[in-house]
Specification:
- The protein is of the alpha/beta class.
- Helix content is about 35%, strand content about 20%.
- The protein has one domain (about 1-165): Flavodoxin domain (Rossmann fold, 3-Layer(aba) Sandwich).
- It has helices spanning about 15-25, 45-60, 90-100, 120-130, 150-165; strands spanning about 1-5, 30-35, 75-85, 105-115, 140.
- The protein has a 5-stranded parallel sheet with strand order 2-1-3-4-5, covered by helices on one side.
- Helix 4 links the parallel strand 4 and strand 5.
- Bound molecules: flavin mononucleotide.
- Flavin mononucleotide binds next to helix 1, helix 2 and strand 4.
- Flavin mononucleotide (FMN) binds near residues 14 and 143.
Length: about 160
């Protein structure tokens, strides 16, 4: 299956997982990785980081994105990657989905990173945004780059296995 991993990562945890999934799935599938960024980066330090990112997520904003290269027609499956912000998924994905409505017809899977909170509401909101009932596979990791744990490797492996079946 031709797969695109589309993700946003402010501080590298989601990128860390995206790279691991690309490596593992890449053994079986053709995988492209598309990292999306807002045209104007969110503040990434201190109080401002939580304030502006949290506000943008809560308001369901669609920030303008920096240029990216993506053609939905090339892919059978999209794997979405996002941190959990204020209980939901990050705004750059919202913009990306709006700009590429053809992704809604693809198989979707999702990985999320949080600081310890649940991804339940974030997954529900992302599924709503995509107009789908459920994801083909899903996994949540807690700051996997900043706090490396043995169990995370197993979680990522199980996620990839579910997609390779
Ligand atoms: C604006 C903002 C809001 C956040 N909101 C939550 C939250 O609601 N629940 C949670 O568990 N973690 C929250 N976090 C923590 C991140 O989800 C977590 O650190 C994640 O691993 C960061 O991914 P990244 O390194 O790819 O940016 C928030 C972080 C930021 C910057």
């Amino acid at each position: 299956m031709k797969t695109a991993i589309v993700y946003y990562s402010m501080l590298g945890n989601t990128k860390y997982v995206a790279d691991k999934i690309a490596e593992q799935l890449g053994a079986a599938d053709e995988v492209d990785v598309i990292r999306i960024e807002p045209a104007k980066a969110y503040p990434d330090k201190g109080f401002k980081k939580f304030f502006w990112g949290g506000k943008s997520a809560t308001m369901a904003e669609k920030p303008e994105l920096a240029p990216y290269d993506f053609d939905a027609e090339k892919y059978d499956r999209i794997i979405w990657g996002t941190p959990v912000w204020a209980g939901t998924f990050t705004p750059p994905l919202r913009t990306f989905i709006a700009e590429n409505p053809a992704v809604k017809a693809k198989q979707s899977a999702v990985f999320m990173c949080s600081g310890g909170g649940s991804d339940k509401k974030a997954k529900k909101k992302l599924a709503e945004c995509l107009g789908i009932e459920a994801f083909a596979a899903e996994v949540l990791l807690f700051d996997p780059k900043d706090n490396v744990k043995d169990e995370d490797a197993g979680k990522i492996e199980a996620f990839c296995k579910a997609l390779m079946e």
